[in-house]
Amino acid sequence: MRAVPTWIDRVHDREKVEQCIYDLAFKPDGTQLIVAAGNRVLVYDASDGTLIQPLKGHRDTVYCVAYAKDGKRFASGSADKSIIIWTSKLEGVWIPFSFNGQKSVSKHKVNSKVTCCGWTNDGQYLAIGLFSGVVSIRNKSGEEKVRIERPGGSLSPIWSICWNPSKEEHNDILAVADWGQRLSFYQLSGKQIGKDRALNFDPCSVSYFSKGEYIIMGGSDKQVSLYTKDGVRLGTVGEQQSWVWTCKVKPDSNYVVVGCQDGTIAFYQIVFSTVHGLYKDRYAYRESMTDVIVQHLITEQKVRIKCRELVKKIAIYKNRLAIQLPEKILIYELFSEDNTDMHYRVKEKIAKKFECNLLVVCSQNVILCLEKRLQCLSFNGVKEREWLMESLIRYIKVIGGPSGREGLLIGLKNGQILKIFVDNPFAIVLLKQATSVRCLDMSASRNKLAVVDEHNTCLVYDISSKELLFQEPNANSVAWNTQCEDMLCFSGGGFLNIKASNFPVHQQKLQGFVVGYNGSKIFCLHVYAMSAVEVPQSAPMYQYLEKKMFKEAYQIACLGVTENDWRDLAMEALEGMDFDIAKKAFIRGRDLRYLELISTIERKKRGENDNELFLADVCAYQGKFHEAAKLYKKTGNDSRALNMYTDLRMFEYAKDFLGSGDPKDTKMLITKQADWARNIHEPKAAAEMYLSAGEHLKAIEIIGDHGWVDMLIDIARKLDKAEREPLSRCAYFFKSLQHPGYAAETYLKMGDLQALILLHVETQHWEEAFSLVEKHPEFKDDVYVPYAQWLAENDRFEEAQKAFHKAGRQDEAVKVLEQLTHNAVVESRFNDAAYYYWMLSMQCLDIAREKEEKQQEMLKTFHHFQRLAELYHAYHSIQRYTDEPFSSHLPEALFNISRFLLHNLTKETPLGISKINTLYALAKQSKALGAFKLARHAYDKLQGLRIPSRFQESIELGSLTIRSKPFHDSEEFVPMCYRCSTNNPLLNNQGNVCINCRQPFVFSASSYEVLPLVQFYLDEGITDEEAVALIDREVPRAEAKKDGWLENNSADVQTLRLEDNMTKVQTDPFTAKLSFEQGGSQFVPVIVNRTVLQSMSRRDVLIKRWPKPLKWHYYRSLLPDVSITMCSSCFQMFHSEDYELLVLQHNCCPYCCRPIDE
């Protein structure tokens, strides 16, 4: 920092008596300066100190002047108790200093003299300095809000105060200077900021710069001093001959004006010099005179180091930072070796005062430069070495080296350039030129030296030979590229100049000084700001390319060029056959196509070295097709030229190139042209081209995809029958296009009978398929299996069954039926499920009969399916009763069905059958029929189950109402065993068997009443045929008449005999058998011999004639008057009347659905 006097004036009155300058004020735009001198107001031109006009109006000394913020008026106050308001045209209006009679003015008394005052920036508060050493802060109404009492009291009167005008500060800050020789700072709240600053003089004036960053102060020390906003003294602005009564700062500038007691008015410009240091991408500079900012030029990170003293010099090198303060030097180091680390810590302090012009720091030393002398100090402050130069040192720079042995590059005023190592007392003279050195830099390899002299000429020398390589004018600074030996840049005249090797200079506009050059980044200092400018290295790269210096051009490109520059480099290197550089450049541009080309050429170069052929490939890739074709032909590679033209769809050029060549090439050309036509969506032309080239398959694919049937028929009829693959595709497309007739014609032409049969099957032309199978039985499976599946899908199960039998695929028939059965159960079609299970059982029986190895398994499955069929057949009625609003079943039938189901659901419940529905139906019907005990039991069972919401209310109501009924069942519904005449309970935990004799009950398949039938078994040795014959023989029996006569019929004689009531009635052998074998805990079957069989009547015996391997089942009716009908297909028993009614309704068996006419 230095102060430059701009102009000085001294004010006298007419008698040449010096007039004290009590106050100064600038016009807000800074053009005029108002001075209070004696009893006059002087108006100066601020730029050159010309007195514009003295203003007379006051009769006594003028103590204060002030300008309005709008710049239209200013005021002056005098000891004559008057204030004059002056316009900008310097016309005044006199106002006496008296407010008597003006009611709008409010007055507030204070207990001491007012010495100074000032408004806050927003005009809301007024700070008043009192002679008693008190600062009073009041609002606009005059009320005291804050009172600051200084320690010195009346011995330290407040002489000057000033509010910081900065808009960046969060709080209003008041600077207070008193004659206790102290400077203090306060917030609006009255809280002191920091400690009092000792001044060692009596301050008369305090004033802030426009932005509040600095303070100027003058007083009894006869000088004006510059301070930071925190009160740190930075230096003297100007020394005077008498007390400084006032000092002010020109708005928005670095100009300061001083008014003294002897009438001196001095106008100074304060010049803030740049204090900074640079090492590679780290730049350290001074800010606010007391702070050091370290900026990383690449990452733009910044760190602030607060020194709280004037920073005089800064030096930076690697991880070291040296800061010179007035009384010491601080050495900082980085926390870590990380290149991006920005955290510094104090390593050493050298607590000595040094005078120097330049400061340099190394790894272990600090270098001080004072005119001709260089001193090397350790970090402890010990002087290790000293050098004395012949002339003034103009430039010094650390050029690197091992720790403790770094080299320094020094330029002197006499033109001498030296190199010094910090551990060597002797300097090495590199060269000497005639002109003074202004700036220096050495190349990365230490072979070249760039110098800027006092005439702004950049000179480049070879260090070893001392030869001047070249020189360029208009340079003020120079820097070598740290990553490229032959590149440097220099600035000057508003331009940046980049020079590569001996090529011409490339220029672009740039303001400032070049201080560093790293890769593509140039570090430029403009005024006080350092910036990193990204400069593409395109120009020097192209200069190398023109000379075919591809390696050097690549090195330049690596520093930073555009994508287009990389591509141009790659292309030039490729054409120049420098494949290594070309590959690297294409990798940068990620051009896989050219990388593949280079890889191909490199593979070929191992076996051949025909550069013209490689150049032809390059030309083809670059789009120079005709040139490539000529080179291919020249090297004898005509086929490659032809492939190139066809790949590019340049068929006309290909034909011209081919001329009248090989027919194979012509065919290939037509095929490729057809491929192209296909790709550009011209299918008809492509198909015709394929046909002309003999590519029938490709033509058929296109024609078939587009459905051109006429063309397809024409091709199929023209093709030879030996061409099976094209004919097969024709037939496939005929099928796809719904023309089975033409497909059949094509298959016949080929002689492919199996494909023809499959065609008939797909189109469901079963008659044609069956006629072919009759002639060729080996294709039986190909017809009957799909036919059976088609029948099953169309619910024609019996026909499907026959078809499966014919095809020998009984397992598949079972699987189809199982799936249909499962679907019926899931869909609650229980009648269908019963029918399907019955059919499944019969299928299993057929398999058991045909396959002995599966007989036991199939018989077990047969009985399982028979049981499921019975259960679903019965549950169908329950489901209709619970889910539908009306039921065709009588209550007795539903009652019996419910009991039948519950007797069979003791172990497991099949899918779809609901125990709740069954119990609900039983409870309802039992209550209706008078079986109240059973109904109560059913309701109790329901209470233990999870009841659906739709039944909840009905069941709860039924459970309550049944309690009012008698706790017994009606006798008429109690089932009786026809074998042992035992009455059985309505619900039997033994199941559907007698509790006494264990004889299974036989039920009607419609009403589910117990039929008067008893099953019997044949004695050993009696076959089914013999048993039937014995039963059919029927021995004559006497029949008793109602009037007592006994009729006996023999072969030739018919007799009548009168019997009385006491005569013994003839005993039935079968009945005797029943009574003899009944009782016991185990079931004892009824086994009959030939005599008993012969005594039976044919109309009393029912036989289930099961096919083998099952045995026939025999049943004897104990009530011959009860007519019972058995279905000959499913062997289910019915009351004859019920059966006949159901047959009339459905025209088939109600159980197995066998049509009645069969």
UniProtKB/TrEMBL annotation:
<dbReference type="InterPro" id="IPR056153">
    <property type="entry name" value="Beta-prop_IFT122_1st"/>
</dbReference>
<keyword id="KW-0677">Repeat</keyword>
<dbReference type="InterPro" id="IPR039857">
    <property type="entry name" value="Ift122/121"/>
</dbReference>
<keyword id="KW-0963">Cytoplasm</keyword>
<feature type="domain" description="Intraflagellar transport protein 122 homolog TPR">
    <location>
        <begin position="537"/>
        <end position="917"/>
    </location>
</feature>
<dbReference type="Pfam" id="PF23377">
    <property type="entry name" value="Beta-prop_IFT122_2nd"/>
</dbReference>
<dbReference type="GO" id="GO:1905515">
    <property type="term" value="P:non-motile cilium assembly"/>
</dbReference>
<dbReference type="GO" id="GO:0097730">
    <property type="term" value="C:non-motile cilium"/>
</dbReference>
<feature type="domain" description="IFT122 first beta-propeller">
    <location>
        <begin position="101"/>
        <end position="167"/>
    </location>
</feature>
<dbReference type="Pfam" id="PF23381">
    <property type="entry name" value="Beta-prop_IFT122_1st"/>
</dbReference>
<dbReference type="GO" id="GO:0061512">
    <property type="term" value="P:protein localization to cilium"/>
</dbReference>
<feature type="domain" description="IFT122 zinc ribbon">
    <location>
        <begin position="970"/>
        <end position="1014"/>
    </location>
</feature>
<feature type="domain" description="IFT122 first beta-propeller">
    <location>
        <begin position="14"/>
        <end position="93"/>
    </location>
</feature>
<dbReference type="InterPro" id="IPR015943">
    <property type="entry name" value="WD40/YVTN_repeat-like_dom_sf"/>
</dbReference>
<dbReference type="InterPro" id="IPR056838">
    <property type="entry name" value="Zn_ribbon_IFT122"/>
</dbReference>
<keyword id="KW-0853">WD repeat</keyword>
<keyword id="KW-0966">Cell projection</keyword>
<protein>
    <recommendedName>
        <fullName>Intraflagellar transport protein 122 homolog</fullName>
    </recommendedName>
</protein>
<dbReference type="Pfam" id="PF25144">
    <property type="entry name" value="Zn_ribbon_IFT122"/>
</dbReference>
<dbReference type="InterPro" id="IPR056152">
    <property type="entry name" value="Beta-prop_IFT122_2nd"/>
</dbReference>
<feature type="domain" description="IFT122 second beta-propeller">
    <location>
        <begin position="276"/>
        <end position="530"/>
    </location>
</feature>
<dbReference type="GO" id="GO:0030991">
    <property type="term" value="C:intraciliary transport particle A"/>
</dbReference>
<keyword id="KW-0217">Developmental protein</keyword>
<dbReference type="InterPro" id="IPR057411">
    <property type="entry name" value="TPR_IFT122"/>
</dbReference>
<feature type="repeat" description="WD">
    <location>
        <begin position="55"/>
        <end position="86"/>
    </location>
</feature>
<keyword id="KW-0969">Cilium</keyword>
<keyword id="KW-0970">Cilium biogenesis/degradation</keyword>
<feature type="domain" description="IFT122 first beta-propeller">
    <location>
        <begin position="168"/>
        <end position="271"/>
    </location>
</feature>
<dbReference type="InterPro" id="IPR036322">
    <property type="entry name" value="WD40_repeat_dom_sf"/>
</dbReference>
<dbReference type="Pfam" id="PF25295">
    <property type="entry name" value="TPR_IFT122"/>
</dbReference>
<keyword id="KW-0206">Cytoskeleton</keyword>
<dbReference type="GO" id="GO:0035721">
    <property type="term" value="P:intraciliary retrograde transport"/>
</dbReference>
<dbReference type="Pfam" id="PF25143">
    <property type="entry name" value="Zn_ribbon_IFT122_C"/>
</dbReference>
<dbReference type="InterPro" id="IPR001680">
    <property type="entry name" value="WD40_rpt"/>
</dbReference>
